[in-house]
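Reading a protein record of the kind used here takes only a little practice. Think of the row as the fold of the chain written in a discrete alphabet. With that in mind, consider the following protein and its fold in token form:
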Amino acid sequence: SKISLEHKEEYLQNRQEIVEIILHSRYVNMYNLLKNHLSEQSYIAIVRNQILVDVQTDDLLFQIFTSNILQRKPQDESPFFEFIQRVCSECVGPDGCPKKVKPGCGGFGIRNFLTLFLSIEVTKAMLAASNAKRDGKIKEYEFAKRKVQLFTDQLNESNPLLTEISEAMTKEGAARDNITLSYREGRTEDAKVWEEVTEKEATAKSLANDLLMECNMKYQRLMRELRESQEDI
């Protein structure tokens, strides 16, 4: 289709910004989580290799699964391997150099289990929607589409809460380390300050956990109502 001269001029004036937005949109879910923790090359490698990623403050967790192994017959239950790698992000320090790699690089990745479950459910619902559309089953197609939307909404609503929990856990852990160090070095007043930080982060973690539980119960109810509405048709 032809582009009007006015729109063409607008595109040329804002070309760089438009291109950056389009590039970010390719990995919008992952970028919303990781922001600038990774280079573009790392983003592309993650997508190409279908690697699951979690972030906890400046630390990353990569996770990938093999296909089934030792499977005697198709559809038989069988084991698989899960590979996990903990790394520090590609963020740089105040001096412009890469941040020093910490042993262990923080936590396990608190959002992994819920995100993995919801991602699987979204994929299954999308496949069901595709099959129903292909077969002309309109009711099943609409039902599957609504399931996709519910799982996606839960994923988007849960992520900020999981981030709050993750960051509070990291800060609480760092504060506990500082308490031990302060007492060891005889800095009692500093230790008391870090004890207050520990209490604050523990409270923040508990509140976010409560909100996450409410979120999960909300979407369980919505999914139950959706299934019941389907049964009534």
